[in-house]
Amino acid sequence: MKISKLTDSISLQRSVEQANVDHLTTVRQVIEDVQKNGDKALFAYTEKWDGAKLTSLKVTQNEIDEAFESFDGQLIQDLEEAATNIRAFHSKQSRQNIDFPLAKNSYIKYQITALDSVGLYVPGGTAAYPSSVLMNAIPALVAGVERVVIVSPPSKEGKLPASVLVAAKIAGVTEIYKVGGAQAIAALAYGTDSIPAVDKITGPGNSYVALAKREVFGKVAIDMIAGPSEIAVIADETAYADEVASDLLAQAEHDRFACSILITTSESLAEQVALEVEKQLKQLPREEIARASIENFGHIYVAESLEQAIDAVNELAPEHLEIITKNAEAVAEQVKHAGAIFIGRFSSEAVGDYFAGTNHVLPTNSTAKFSSGLCVDDFLKKTSVVYYSEEMWKEQYPKIARLARMEQLEGHARSVESRSWNKGDLN
Ligand SMILES: NC(=O)c1ccc[n+]([C@@H]2O[C@H](COP(=O)([O-])OP(=O)(O)OC[C@H]3O[C@@H](n4cnc5c(N)ncnc54)[C@H](O)[C@@H]3O)[C@@H](O)[C@H]2O)c1
Ligand SMILES: N[C@H](CO)Cc1c[nH]c[nH+]1
Ligand SMILES: [Zn+2]
């Protein structure tokens, strides 16, 4: 792994930027094709990129039940416990209503409603992500969304992994389609004969998925740009090099475009971590992916001070931030921009990826500067409501009419005044 001194300019904007341009061209063609040719295009792309020849996209109840019955009992228990933790944390998230009484028996408020339909993207190109089923579906169901749809790419045999179907059953989702990538996002946005369109698409995926979500935004809502995974670790001389290396590799193994960055105040830790990464890479079954990610987008920076490291992280706004230093909680309080923070050596990112109860669908590519991780609010809408009594209107309408005329909007002024035209109806 490359080691250099921390300067002002470090970035998560991977040189994928160039690759993204190519990916974007593909993504735009795919979306146009799905819009025009519907299911036919879905079948063609599924054969091209997933190697599966399908004649129908929908997973049957039978397939879900069979997967559940033949699945490892211990893993079902573990998934159920993870689901319980995720549900507990997300159930605490507010559907906070603001009831705001005004004078003269009037009021304004928010009316909070769940979205009617959402499409959850569950990645599956190079690995199965049952954990992403739970992370997407539980907040949607806690919010009260009626139609919750999962899309995920099938294997060459035309199947979804049993683990994904089991997690869907545990979460309580039954509408599942075997389609992934940009074509799945296009289908959810525009609808096809097999897949009726949804109102919002959430969930993580590779750069094709993330770009496709960005392209269909406006036709549907999206949660955020949750692309190839990232981690930044701030560590000082108290950290263990082998532990830090294992955390960097845990992200690198997700994707060739994943990004793992260590910022440390200890030169000696920097050197040891670099050696450890090389050693541990060989122990990973996904060595090839992890190595490509580390070689292209992995970096160790030596900072002059903890303050410099924190400033750099706030500039990076990484998807995940681990803090393995003395007084790590105090350091965490100084972080403004990160998708999720993991404090201390016993809270490695994998704890949150699977189990703690926080959400692992998180903003990447520095979008944590303005986006949050997936939560119940992503599946809710707030409609403002206004009720003015006649007395309230009588007192306020001249002010409102004046403001309208200030904007030279005579129609607005007349509209608020018009209630005085029919005097017979007033008290
Ligand atoms: N940010 C987050 O919250 C988060 C969470 C979990 C996973 N992830 C990320 O999800 C991603 C999972 O990636 P994945 O690839 O394993 O699965 P994926 O499901 O995201 O993508 C697989 C699909 O990509 C499409 N594709 C592959 N090669 C293509 C090509 N050459 N042209 C057009 N389309 C192509 C195919 O349709 C395929 O079905 C990783 O990047 C991982 O880091 C992110
Ligand atoms: N680290 C991923 C988010 O970037 C989430 C995940 C799922 N499974 C394992 N990890
Ligand atoms: Zn992970």
From TrEMBL:
Keywords: Amino-acid biosynthesis, Histidine biosynthesis, Metal-binding, NAD, Oxidoreductase, Zinc
InterPro entries assigned: Ald_DH/histidinol_DH, Histidinol_DH_CS, Histidinol_DH_monofunct, Hstdl_DH
The keyword Metal-binding belongs to this UniProt entry's keyword annotation: yes
EC numbers: 1.1.1.23
Pathway it works in: Amino-acid biosynthesis; L-histidine biosynthesis; L-histidine from 5-phospho-alpha-D-ribose 1-diphosphate: step 9/9
Binding site for Zn(2+): Q251, H254, D353, H412
Binding site for NAD(+): Y121, Q183, N206
Cofactor: Zn(2+)
Organism superkingdom: Bacteria
SUPFAM superfamilies linked to this entry: ALDH-like
GO cellular component, one term: cytosol
Positions annotated as active site in the UniProt record: E319, H320
Gene Ontology biological-process annotations: L-histidine biosynthetic process
Catalytic activity: L-histidinol + 2 NAD(+) + H2O = L-histidine + 2 NADH + 3 H(+)
UniProt GO molecular function: histidinol dehydrogenase activity; NAD binding; zinc ion binding
Classification via CDD domains: Histidinol_dh
Sequence similarity: Belongs to the histidinol dehydrogenase family.
HAMAP family the UniProt entry points to: HisD (MF_01024)
PANTHER family in UniProt: HISTIDINE BIOSYNTHESIS TRIFUNCTIONAL PROTEIN (PTHR21256:SF2), HISTIDINOL DEHYDROGENASE HDH (PTHR21256)
NCBIfam families for the chain: hisD
Function per UniProt: Catalyzes the sequential NAD-dependent oxidations of L-histidinol to L-histidinaldehyde and then to L-histidine.
Protein name: Histidinol dehydrogenase
Organism: Psychrobacillus insolitus
Lineage, top ranks: Bacteria, Bacillati, Bacillota, Bacilli, Bacillales
